[in-house]
Write a structure and sequence with these properties.
elongated; 57% helix
Length: 69
Amino acid sequence: MDINVLLSTVVLVSFIVTIVLAVGSYLAFKGREHRRPEPELAPRRGEPVFFERIYLQVRKDDEPQMAAM
């Protein structure tokens, strides 16, 4: 067997195995997400759900509130 044919076969087989593993991983991921129940978010009264804004400097709007504390 010629070395070129051998290397071509190795590259082709590794490519096909990679594609099969990628599809299998995707199907396993989707199956896991399908079984997981939907999270129910608590009402946040207009506040952002994922981010909390942090100010490094005191804003002028917040000064009276801070003085009341």
